[in-house]
User: What shape does this take?
Amino acid sequence: MNLSFTATWRRRIAGAFLTWLVPFVCAVPFYGPAGLVIDQQLFKSILIVIGSITAAILIVWCFRPIEKNFTHEAIVTGIVWLLANWVLDLIVLVGLLGMTLPDYAGQIGLRYLVIPAMVIAAGVVADEAGKRKTENFS
Assistant: This one.
C-alpha cells in the first residue's frame, strides 16, 4: 500500500500530537491541589516509560504503511514530533502553567531529544532490513 503525501502527513501530525497528549493526560492524576502527590523521581520515571511506550506504538503505526525511504521518513517524523512536543509544552507548561523557560529546558525539554533518536533509529533499521531482504533475493 502506498500512502499519499497527505495521508503520511496526517499520520505524522496525529503521532506528534499523541506523543505529547498521552503522557500529559497520564501525568494529571499525579497532581493534587498542593502539587505532585508522589516522589518526583518516580513521577519522572513513570512519564519516561509512558512516553517511550507511546512513541514505540506510534512509530509502528506511522511506519507500517510506508514502503521505502524509511530513514528519510524517520528524520522528518522525528523532527516534526520533537518540534510539536516542544511547542505544545511551551504553550501549556510555560505559557499557561507559568513554568520558567530555563526550568522547562533543563527539566523536560532536553529529554524530548530521545524522540528523534528513537524514530530515526527505527527508520535506519527498517531501511537496512529492506536492503538485506533485497540482497537475499538477488
About this structure: The chain has a mean pLDDT of 93. The two ends are 23 Å apart (CA to CA). The helical segments are 5-27, 40-63, 70-96, 101-107, 114-137.
